[in-house]
Design goal:
The chain is α/β, with parallel strands linked by helices and 331 residues long. It folds into two domains: 12-214, Alpha-Beta Complex (Spore Coat Polysaccharide Biosynthesis Protein SpsA, Chain A), CATH 3.90.550.10; 226-330. 41% of the residues lie in helices and 17% in strands. The chain has twelve helices and nine strands. It has helices spanning 25-33, 54-64, 78-86, 107-118, 171-177, 188-199, 230-246, 252-272, 282-294, 298-303, 310-319, 322-330, and strands at 12-18, 41-48, 68-73, 93-96, 102-103, 122-130, 147-149, 167-170, 203-214. Strands 1, 2, 3, 4, 5, 6, 7, 8 and 9 form a nine-stranded mixed beta sheet that branches. α1 links the parallel β1 (12-18) and β2 (41-48). The longest helix has 21 residues, at 252-272. The chain is globular. Pfam families: Glycos_transf_2 (PF00535).
Length: 331
């Protein structure tokens, strides 16, 4: 953020990156304009080079609502889109949504009330998967009522909540720490949200769903191609290496939280190498995998060795012998 003056007309700046989401966008926009005190929300809609009906839908929404603006850019990914909007944000608090999802009724106002009453740097709320499917480990800290956290190490599974759209951030907090999204990479939201959680003086856990995370019917979202897109193997590794190095700045407990995050979140990719998605450059990837696993203690790796072969794969990754193991299995 470039430190724009706060606009007293707005309580929240809502940032919505959009790329070819025309079939889903009307429901998203309807959920935004239905929010309580919608007129006190600055809505920044970023068209990330869409080639379908998305630009027209965004323009029509902005035409009807003076508190909404459309920002346009050539396709550069959601990280660049969100960063573009961060530089235009004017409100005291920041929230995010994706153009193919839906905000729950009163979701923004519920988070804002918690932030104002508690003074927390950020609010982390519950969300709902639509259709219903398994949740991440972070969900273990919900279902127990609202809580104000001043020591994140007491809530170690919260580190696995890498999304930004179930959270509200103090704009001053974001600006003072210089948090940005990863440009040109997938999993860009975790580059922003995880360092923010670690830096927050306090976090308010809102035990209420504020967002519906919708699975696309055609199965073409980023998450649907998690293990089949070769770029994901590199991008999640880049995220984890960044976080593991970040851990050196913190106490042992936080460092261990980041090690657990890296071990757990890359485990599926390591298993996926057995099926070797087309297009993966193993000569470039495997040395990075070795670097990654050498930064994680053995006892942390053993915690997440839950399937037959996990131990062997993780140890080979750490020893730099993964190429031989995968080659032997391929033969």
């Amino acid at each position: 953020m470039k430190g724009r003056f706060l606009n007293p007309e707005y309580d929240i700046t809502l940032i919505v990156p959009c790329f070819n989401v025309a079939p889903y966008l009307p429901a998203c926009l309807e959920s935004i304009e239905s929010q309580r005190d919608f007129d006190r929300t600055q809505v920044l809609l970023v068209d990330d080079g869409s080639a379908d009906g998305t630009p027209g839908l965004l323009s029509e929404f902005a035409r009807r609502h003076p508190n909404a603006r459309v920002l346009t850019q050539p396709n550069a990914g959601p990280g660049a889109a969100r960063n573009r909007a961060l530089d235009e944000a004017e409100a005291r608090y920041l929230a995010f949504a994706d153009g193919d999802d839906v905000l729950r009724e009163d979701g923004l106002r519920s988070m804002l009330t918690c932030a104002l009453e508690s003074g927390a740097d950020m609010v982390v709320a519950d969300f709902v998967n639509v259709p219903e499917r398994p949740y991440g480990r972070w969900k273990r800290h919900f279902g127990k009522g609202d809580q104000l956290i001043s020591d994140i190490t007491r809530y170690p599974e919260l580190i696995f909540s890498g999304s930004v759209w179930n959270k509200l951030y103090s704009a001053r907090f974001v600006r003072d720490h210089g948090f940005r999204f990863a440009d040109g990479r997938l999993f860009e939201d975790a580059w922003f949200s995880i360092p923010a959680m670690l830096s927050a003086g306090s976090i308010y856990l809102l035990d209420k769903p504020v967002y519906d995370y919708r699975k696309r019917a055609e199965g073409n979202s980023i998450m649907d191609s998690l293990r089949t897109n070769p770029a994901n193997y590199f991008d999640h590794l880049a995220l984890n290496l960044h976080l593991l190095r970040l851990g050196d700045r913190y106490s042992g407990d936080i460092k261990r939280m980041l090690q657990r995050y890296a071990a757990f979140t890359y485990r599926g990719f390591l298993r996926g190498l057995r099926r070797a998605p087309d297009g993966i450059d193993h000569s470039a990837l495997l040395p990075l995998i070795t670097e990654h696993y050498r930064l994680i203690p053995d006892d942390v790796l053993q915690e997440f060795a839950e399937h037959p072969g996990d131990d062997e794969l993780q140890q080979a990754a750490k020893d730099g012998t993964l190429s031989g193991l995968l080659g032997a299995r391929a033969n």
